[in-house]
Amino acid sequence: MRYVKHYGTWGYILHRLSGLALTGYILIHIYLVSGLHNRPAWRSEMEIFRHPLLIVLEWCLFSVVIYHALNGLRIFMIDYFNGARYQKQLLTAVLVLSVILFAAMGAVMFI
Amino acid sequence: MSFKYEGAGTSGSFAWFFQRITGVVLFIQVLAHFYIAHNTWDAGHDWATIIARLSNPYMRTFYLVFVVLGLYHGLNGLWSILRDYHMSAGKRKLVFGLVVTVGIFIGTLGFITMLTLPAVQ
Hints:
The structure holds two protein chains of two kinds.
Chain A: H1 7-33, H2 39-47, H3 52-80, H4 87-110
Helix pairs in contact in A: 1-3, 3-4
Chain B: H1 13-37, H2 41-45, H3 47-54, H4 57-82, H5 89-115
């Protein structure tokens, strides 16, 4: 698909990509949680999630959720609160806030 | 899904509206979920901790709603992206059927998990 890339379009593209990633994630997540029925198998499976790489990936997942949630709020404001007038400023706010929260979560997780 | 002569009710405007509503609810739910289930490593991965938490019926209700809204919002979003690509009527039906089937399958799996856990029975 080809998009005309204005500033706001990047918000739109990122919203789609993060949404796709999260939809894939929720399917896998619900499937994995169904493993709670088998306690020994659950234990060995969850040991995998102590791996540093997966913890970093969880951190990235958080940032994807935060971006999608904040930009979702921006979309809500565009649709219902005349946000189209200041959608560019809102996108900047979403991006800045996402980076701040990503860094803050990194500090909570790793420091 | 043809949009001809079907009126606004089938034009996707309900899905558009409901995507906003579920989005707002999910905004709150996903943050609550992080706080409840991923505050510590044990909260999200230790079997006994998880089972103890889920033996609370309110918690189970929260997750049943979360599963339904999360899957609906995610798969409806996926479908709205897929609709942007040209598909023949037959392929369109096939893809839509596939998306709905995945939703029902994983949704049912989530419900079975929540309703038949050892401590819950």
